[in-house]
Every structure is written in structure tokens, then in C-alpha cells.
Amino acid sequence: MLIAHVSPRTMGKTTNAAFLAHAMHERGYPMIGYDADHSQQLTRWDAKAKFPFPVLGAASETFHMNVPKTLPPDTIGMIDCGHAEDHVGVTSSVLRCADLAILNSSPSTADLYRIRDLPMRKVLDDVAPLRLDSKPPETWVLLNRCPPQSNSKAVPDARKWFAKRGWNVFTTTVPFLQQYSQAIPFAVKGAGSHLDELVTEMKDRGLIP
Ligand SMILES: Nc1ncnc2c1ncn2[C@@H]1O[C@H](COP(=O)(O)OP(=O)(O)OP(=O)(O)O)[C@@H](O)[C@H]1O
Ligand SMILES: [Mg+2]
Question: How many angstroms is it from 145 CA to the middle of ligand 1?
Fold first, then answer.
């Protein structure tokens, strides 16, 4: 199965892709990371931190033709995309074959408006006719870099904003914490992170085996 991290611009994709891949690896899922970003941040992070699973370069508009056939059965491919604003061809190619798309966003209005204005919904809908099932990939929003204060209205407001526009939003959120902001280029521990909670939620929702 292929899980794609997407967003119009810098919105936490690489950090969440790396932590989620580690959390899943630690739970026994065979993992491969795919770096579908020309900036190769995930590749450079792996080179320094030595991830316990392979990370393969895949920033190409032919991703859908080349990558799925290389993925061993029962292995999860975690894909880190680049900016959909600048490299929509690569993101669209990834979305043609992704089983699950995770739209990363902070709860800030700047990020929400960017998702609206790209428009991210259209990027997902446009790939539908090019997919085997003729539907857009199942897509869930992962709110990240959230204010850690429990009295902040940012997360509930962002949830409402997405829900009103028909997006699925994960219950799990990732707070703005030094643990994540300083993660690159160090080794990653998925267990105990918010991304480990996300694995539980994804399982409970039937999104992953
Ligand atoms: N939960 C978090 N708390 C604090 N800082 C975070 C968190 N998640 C990511 N960051 C920081 O935010 C910045 C952007 O994150 P990241 O590089 O993962 O985004 P991206 O979407 O992959 O960006 P790009 O598209 O430019 O590659 C980085 O400096 C990262 O360390
Ligand atoms: Mg990145």
C-alpha cells in the first residue's frame, strides 16, 4: 500500500512522513520511504540518521508508472511529496496510485487559505479519471504544528473549516513541539510520538491493515 504526504507548500510533510514511517516500522509493518520531493530532505535525513528501512528517490512525474511495481507485497510505501504548488506533476503522479493521501496542514489561516487557493481539492479530483477506481484517493487531513495550549481555538476552528468543505480530519493532531522541530537530521523514535497515536487511529478507521 502507498501512503502519500501532500500539501501545497511547506506544511510538515517530511517530518510527519518520517515519524509515521518509524512508528509503523516499530509496530512491525515492512516499510519503504519514497522521497518524491526534488529537495531530497527525506533522503538527506536518512543519510544522516540511518533509518531502519530503505528510502528511495522518486521525485518524478512518472511515479505512478515506475514505483507501484517495485513495492513488495504487504510493504507500506510512505511517500514524501514536494510542494504541490511548484511540482503539481509529481504530486498528481503520486496521487494516481496512492491508496491513502495525508494532507498535512497547520491550523493557521495562512495554511488553510493556501489549501483552498491552490486548490488542493481540484488536484485530488483531477486524478480520479486516471485511477483504476476512477475515484480520488481516500484523503485525510493531519493537523500539525498545533498550539499545545488546550484553550487555543485554532484546532477546533480549523477542524470546522475543513469539515465544512467536506474534508476528513484525523482526530489525532501533532502539536508544535521542539521534539519535531529539531528532529532533522537526528534519529527518529516513532513510539511515544503523536504519529504512533495516528497509527492506532488509522488502524481503528480501517485505513491500514
Ligand atoms: N510538530 C512540529 N512542531 C514543531 N516544528 C515542526 C513540526 N513539524 C514540522 N516542524 C518544522 O516545520 C518545518 C517544516 O516541516 P517539514 O520540513 O516537515 O515540512 P514540509 O511540508 O516537508 O516542507 P517542504 O515542502 O518545504 O519540504 C521544519 O522546520 C520542521 O522541523
Ligand atoms: Mg519536505
Answer: 8
Q: How far is Cα 152 from Cα 156, in angstroms, rounded to an integer? A: 8
Q: Tell which atom from ligand 1 comes closest to the C-alpha of 41.
A: 27
- Closest among 183, 192, 18 to 104, alpha carbons compared: 18
**What is the whole-number distance in angstroms between the Cα of residue 183 and the centre of ligand 2?**
13
Torsions phi, psi for 144 (to 5 deg): -140, 170
Is 145 a pocket residue for ligand 1 (Cβ < 6 Å)? yes
- Domains of the chain, CATH where assigned: 2-204 (3.40.50.300)
Q: Which residues, listed in sequence order, are joined to residue 3 by a DSSP beta bridge?
A: 78, 100
Arithmetic mean of pLDDT over the chain: 97
What share of the chain has pLDDT > 70, as a percent? 100
133: which 3 cell numbers? Answer: 477506481
pLDDT-derived band of residue 11, with 50, 70 and 90 as boundaries? very high
